[in-house]
């Protein structure tokens, strides 16, 4: 089954989880690109949506979804987003699209964080690269403390994040994602990283040749 068919199936399944009046976090990426029209087609009333990127915000508004600033909501009923990798223990890698900082802020705010992926995103173990958002201020110092430019590749030509961060990738093996996540979170100059802990994730909806599977964490 082509990837887009599977992405659409996972996205449509997630769209069914949204109800009238919900506060909804909208992720970023090509799988979410299928979620937005599926959600709009439901014709739900009173939705309040928060977007994790300008691309998602623009597309959601085009489809008539009510998008508002994340400054006005301190809690969300559900957030739905894609992932780059999903491991059996529930660890995710996100940030292929460079939106992981805002995506994580939305995910932790939601009562339910639902991840939508096609089967190719399933991995036996988390591996690099791990996306990073780095503070522009003192970037050379941060790079040195992360192991230098051979370990951290800045995405050349990539636009800064909406919060003016530099998007990069930590190359090399990950080993224990919890250890790497803790080390990155404790590194001054790292705004956030693309490792999402299993505790963040409520459910992973996986679409594959055999159909759509809901995996509750
Ligand atoms: O960049 C991101 O965090 C995206 O959500 C990514 O993890 C999934 O993007 P995709 O749906 O285009 O594969």
From TrEMBL:
Q: Which domain of life is it from?
A: Bacteria
Indicate whether Isomerase appears among the record's keywords. yes
Which Gene Ontology BP terms does the record give?
A: pentose-phosphate shunt, non-oxidative branch
Which SUPFAM superfamilies does the annotation name?
Answer: D-ribose-5-phosphate isomerase (RpiA), lid domain, NagB/RpiA/CoA transferase-like
> Top EC class per UniProt?
isomerase
Sample GO molecular function, one term: ribose-5-phosphate isomerase activity
> Which InterPro entries does the entry link to?
NagB/RpiA_transferase-like, Ribose-5P_isomerase, Ribose5P_isomerase_type_A
Q: Which residues span the membrane?
A: none
Q: In which pathway does it act?
A: Carbohydrate degradation
Q: Does the keyword Isomerase apply?
A: yes
Q: Which reaction does it catalyse?
A: aldehydo-D-ribose 5-phosphate = D-ribulose 5-phosphate
Q: What is its EC number?
A: 5.3.1.6
Q: Tell me which UniProt keywords the record has, alphabetically.
A: Isomerase
Indicate what this protein is called per its UniProt record: Ribose 5-phosphate isomerase A
Q: Which organism is it from?
A: Capillimicrobium parvum
Organism taxonomic ancestry = Bacteria, Bacillati, Actinomycetota, Thermoleophilia, Solirubrobacterales
């Amino acid at each position: 089954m082509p990837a887009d068919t599977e992405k659409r199936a996972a996205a449509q399944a997630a769209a069914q989880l949204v109800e009238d009046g919900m506060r909804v976090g909208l992720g970023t990426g090509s799988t979410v690109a299928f979620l937005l029209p599926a959600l709009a087609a439901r014709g739900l009333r009173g939705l309040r949506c928060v977007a994790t990127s300008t691309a998602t915000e623009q597309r959601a508004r085009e489809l008539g979804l009510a998008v508002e600033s994340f400054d006005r909501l301190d809690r969300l009923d559900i957030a739905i987003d894609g992932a780059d990798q999903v491991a059996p223990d529930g660890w995710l890698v996100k940030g292929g699209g460079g939106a992981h900082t805002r995506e994580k802020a939305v995910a932790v705010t939601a009562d339910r964080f639902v991840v939508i992926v096609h089967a190719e995103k399933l991995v036996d173990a988390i591996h690099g690269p791990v996306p990073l958002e780095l503070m522009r201020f003192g970037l050379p110092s941060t790079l040195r403390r992360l192991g230098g430019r051979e370990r951290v590749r800045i995405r050349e030509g990539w636009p800064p994040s909406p919060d003016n961060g530099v998007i990069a990738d930590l190359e090399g093996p990950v080993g224990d994602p919890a250890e790497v996540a803790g080390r990155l979170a404790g590194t001054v100059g790292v705004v956030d990283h693309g490792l999402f802990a299993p505790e963040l994730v409520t459910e992973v909806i996986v679409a594959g040749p055999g159909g759509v599977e809901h995996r509750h964490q």
